[in-house]
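Margin note from the TA: students keep mixing up input and output lines. Inputs are the sequences; the output is the structure of the whole complex. Example:
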Amino acid sequence: MKFQEELKESIRKALPELDVVIGWCGSFDPLHATPHFIYGEEDIEKLEISPLNVHNLATYLPGMRGKKVGVVVKGCDSRSVVELLQEKLISRDDITIFGFPCTGVIDQSKVKKAIGYVGNVQSCDMSDESLVVVVDDKPHSLKLSEVLAEKCKSCRYPDAIISDYFVGDRIAKKDPAEPNYKELEKFEKLAVSERFGYWLKELDRCIRCYACRSACPLCVCRDHCIAESRDPHWLSQENNVRDKLMFQVIHAYHMAGRCTECGECQRACPVDIPILMLKQKMNKEVLDIFNYEAGVNLKDTPPLLSFKMEEENITEKDW
Amino acid sequence: MTLVKYLKSTDLKSWLAELAEKNSVFAPRYEGDSVIFAPFDPEQEIYTKSAATVPPKKTVFPQSEKLVDFTYHKDPENPGKTLIDGKEVLPQGTTVVFGGRPCDVRGFSMFDRVYLTKETTDIYYKARRDNTSFITIACEFTESTCFCHWVGSSPSDPIGSDVLAVPVKGGFLLTAVSARGETLLTSKLLLEGKPKVEEAEEVLDKVMENLGKAPDLSKSPGKLLEVFDNMEFWEKVSAKCISCGTCTYLCPTCYCFNITDEIQGLKGSRIRSWDNCMSALFTMEASGHNPRPTKAHRLKNRVGHKFSYYPDLHDGIISCYGCGRCIKSCPAGVDIREIVLKAIEFMPTVVEE
């Protein structure tokens, strides 16, 4: 990316005042990136900005309270930072935000599906519109638009909403004016039995590793999660899909009007369960009732974290 | 004389259907975008190209299993006293697992050293272990996360398997590698295997070439102990870990479990379920003290256990068979190979006086 060097320069400038800056670098193969913790000059050089930077680095912030942390954010990641600040889960004074114009990230599951087998990726060349992935000496040419993460296709915040350093040229805010819930609307039209059947089937393969929870920037109970607690003992440890669904429902409810739909829950899932939809459903309801979108305005209070005697769009009684 | 047979790919389902008459048969198949081991279903395609997303660990060591069913009731002679009737729930029947990889199946030899010792036998584990056969597919391709050859194994390692299946043109060359394996190869669907032996050897030679040279890990047990107290080292290598259980639950050699009583009214079951050393609750003591209070302590334990403590207890055998799932499926890209190599190469900074 053209502004990568500029970003390195900003980090170099800010690093002496910080304990660490979190960015991304190359990983085990050319098709993957990994979160990269920058402590000194040699780490700065490894920083890479690319459509492979899927990880939302805001996830690390609540666990690093008390440290001076720099964090590189995509537009969507910056919404998580805003939401964490709104909820006072992190302190603005402790964090330094590096933003850049994000043109979207790649969905690894889509790449896997398009190519078939990506066990041994030898190279991955990306341009603005395409990527060429070489697997076992065979090149596969893919259009970027085909393998872009769903959230990126209807992204409305490509630039970081909040930043101390912004590198590159801003991309003007994109249409649509409201979040895109077309896929969800299609799903909502199915009969209850079909929807329930869908979740029972999808969640059956859940291994209860709770990567969905751990990757979520706003799941802040961390070491005190209901999923593993025996006191209270709300979830059984039996291997039944009912408890797996129960956890997802608890997670989704706690995310209503807080979730910024970064999609980390779904991306982190090692068995590709499409659980982002559950959070989108909650957010769609919150948008309908409260006309509220999470993590876009520092001054807002998430509607379910506040109380009004009379809600404009909720009629409790007939009169 | 080793028993070798040739199975045509087109006969695979019929063969598994035959085996399913007397056994529960598990085979890898797509569920969503992931490959998991599921009960054999002739209607579904079997995936044989590469290792499954989730290994077949659950066939011998289920994600969650009932150990004991119990009921509380009052002692009629002494109403102040509560009696408990308990009955162990032992696994029944025989299982055949088709399509695991050598690294998946060899993993159980790690379990055996812990669950089947001279002093103690885990009866639940033993019942499944004794009654489960493995028809393992040797790897024709290697992945960038594969490192079986670093840890004393190979893409055609037969340890723990009953039949080794090598992909050849149009099917598999099946070799019995245990007495139980021979009994699995009696079907009339199986053809004479000898004409395919040479081709199978070529496949295996080629895959070994692709794996490249392995670094020497013989120093890892000692080197990891040397950095044991170096928390700065562990904080740095664990910084990106998000403390989920993906690495441990997808690991064919991770055998830790937790025990929970699930009670409804006067009836209940004692459950054993997978536990995960990356979780804060793993070593949480009743007093509230946790000897592994941070993710750095926990990741140190996962790496140390596999590459230092286990080999120190068990003749130098590393408790990892290099399947690479903990790397490939880690949501944060933590690479256990990188950590072990860093520990081996670690040189303490000499402070000049």
